[in-house]
Amino acid sequence: MFFNTMKNIILLLFAVIMLSSCSQYQKVLSSDDTGKKYALADSLYAQGKYKKALKLFEQIVPVYRGKPQAERLMFLYANTFYELEDYYLSGYQFERFETSYPQSDSVEVAAYKSAKSYSELSPRYSLDQEDTYKALEKLQSYINKYPNSEKRTEANELVSELSGKIEKKDIEIANQNLKIAEYIGDYRPAIESYDNFISDHPGSVYRKDAFFGRLQAAYELAVRSVPSLVEERLITAQDYYNKFNKYYSDTDLKAEADLIAQNIAERLGEREQKS
């Protein structure tokens, strides 16, 4: 009985304290006292109560613009969005901070968190990669501007991860163009896609697949062409085989590539005999 009574008293006291705290928060939130709002927002932020702090920040940020407190306030405001995982707004607000306070001691952190925010927005590779490109741009800018940063390694890892996503999407597009070509009979878009991939991603793990895919597409284009274009296109396909063989002669695709090369040679030989 005694322990149950004490438990009820403690719960009652806790409820009273919570109600009082909420009442105090609502009172400050609805007041016109900017100083109290700043102090309470600062306190709530320090406690990790970001949602409550944000409501106060949203009210006082415009008021403090141009004042000495504005720099710190703007950083806390941006970081509150970051902590709440609202990465669209944290990316934007950290960008604003960089522009507004380029000499700030916090500008390097802001630059990194802005880039990191956009990287968090990057979707899976099969979707539109606008945010991925934005993140790569911001990360590369950060790396260039702060080459000795302690975040450099992490930034480079993010660049590698995001670049891999772009590469995956681009090779899938090229492969899809190759599949579509089987139905429409025009392999030129596939060849162009593989050419672009090879140019745009010189260090990619999918580079081998691009060289082989280009060879496949060029061969199919040649054998399906009108007679007057076959020889010229077979020679182009043969050149693509030579380039594949130069870099990837010891890969799992070598046997398939050799078979295509053999077919090319046979067809060219047959045409030479006829002529």
TrEMBL record:
It comes from Marixanthomonas ophiurae. Residues 37-222 form the Outer membrane lipoprotein BamD-like domain. It holds the Pfam family YfiO. Coiled coil: none annotated. Keywords: Cell outer membrane, Membrane, Signal. This is Outer membrane protein assembly factor BamD.
